[in-house]
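Priority: medium. Attachment 1 of 2:
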């Protein structure tokens, strides 16, 4: 019974937050088409933003439905290489290309506008610092990241995968942060009016590069969007198929039938995400933050305690997932991630992670029988 409940609750959490997470990628695709291809596509009176969502979702669904995990893995590798290259090229050109002025000029411009941008501590509150660093807790609970480790062929490949993954992440994060910070300096120095800060990559790509290079950079942006969406759709589909369809509707379903049902689930989750992303005022970062916190709080404490605390049991696991996910959703609905007790907002992963951690400890301790404790002690 506990195993059944555990699979059901995890499937619900995965589908809910992956729908939100996938929506963030579709919002990015919509903004790309709205900013870069305005007026080019005219499909039945749809806005450029809506057309971008439709095209982005259609392309991702095509290769995810047909190719499955292998196609997603291969395309993710290529897309990851393109993304990293773009995140190295763009900040370098913004800083040292025509109109950039170099690091010294960019620093001077940023100091005149907002001195806190280049400082590690100035203007930083404890809540702000805590909300920033606790993003790292989310990595423990991201199903689409964990499934990559599950696909590793042998244990000896783990160190290599770790080194490659961490190197890619370090380079890409430094590039993305540099682009955001120095891209703002470039926009100010050159009198650019950037209505939506999340489109700075698109604007600079169009301004600074030859059309062929611009096309490559747009492809890099789409690569970032599609690699994320495809991974999320694949995990959502697998969860719905194995933890719902095969569990409740067709226990005797063949592997071929499950593959077909999985394809249907990919399409359904994608359509739900498209509905969530349909608001043109949606922000990519806000949607990512919500989904990241939901997964981090629901699964992160459970994974950590399952590895580090032998007394973790099924009841505690269920309690942790429910409490973590519910706390995140309540925190968001009350707006406490934007403003809390008259002060700055507290990132929802913090209360969610803490609440889930406590729930697992308390419920596992309360439901463990004497024989279980004796077994642990032995």
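Attachment 2 of 2:
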């Amino acid at each position: 019974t506990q195993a059944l409940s555990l699979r059901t609750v995890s499937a619900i959490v995965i589908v809910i937050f992956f729908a939100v997470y996938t929506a963030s990628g579709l919002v990015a695709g919509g903004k790309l088409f709205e900013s870069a291809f305005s007026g080019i596509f005219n499909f039945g009176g749809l806005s450029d933003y809506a057309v971008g969502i439709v095209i982005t979702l259609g392309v991702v669904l095509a290769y995810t439905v047909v190719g499955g995990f292998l196609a997603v893995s291969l395309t993710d590798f290529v897309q990851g290489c393109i993304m990293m290259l773009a995140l190295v090229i763009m900040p370098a050109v913004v800083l040292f290309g025509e109109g950039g002025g170099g690091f010294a000029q960019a620093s001077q411009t940023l100091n005149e506008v907002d001195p806190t941008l280049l400082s590690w501590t100035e203007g930083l509150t404890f809540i702000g610092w805590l909300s920033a660093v606790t993003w790292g807790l989310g990595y423990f609970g991201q199903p689409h990241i964990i499934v990559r480790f599950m696909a590793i062929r042998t244990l000896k490949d783990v160190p290599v995968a770790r080194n490659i993954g961490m190197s890619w992440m370090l380079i890409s994060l430094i590039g993305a942060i540099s682009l955001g910070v120095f891209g703002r300096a470039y926009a100010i120095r050159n009198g650019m009016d950037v209505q939506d800060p999340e489109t700075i990559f698109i604007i600079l790509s169009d301004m600074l590069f030859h059309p062929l290079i611009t096309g490559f950079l747009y492809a890099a942006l789409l690569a970032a969007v599609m690699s994320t969406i495809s991974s999320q759709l694949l995990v959502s589909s697998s969860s719905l198929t194995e933890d719902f369809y095969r569990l409740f509707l067709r226990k005797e379903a063949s592997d071929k039938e499950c593959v077909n049902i999985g394809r249907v689930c990919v399409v359904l989750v994608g359509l739900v995400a498209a509905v969530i992303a349909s608001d043109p005022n949606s922000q990519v970062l806000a949607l990512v933050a919500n989904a990241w916190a939901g997964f981090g709080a629901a699964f992160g404490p459970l994974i950590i305690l399952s590895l580090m605390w032998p007394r973790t049991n099924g009841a505690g696991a269920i309690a942790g997932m429910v409490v973590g996910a519910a706390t995140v959703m309540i925190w968001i609905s009350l707006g406490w991630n934007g403003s809390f007790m008259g002060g700055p907002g507290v990132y929802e992963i913090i209360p969610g992670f803490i609440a889930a951690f406590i729930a697992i400890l308390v419920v596992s301790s309360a439901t463990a029988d004497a024989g279980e404790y004796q077994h642990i002690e032995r």
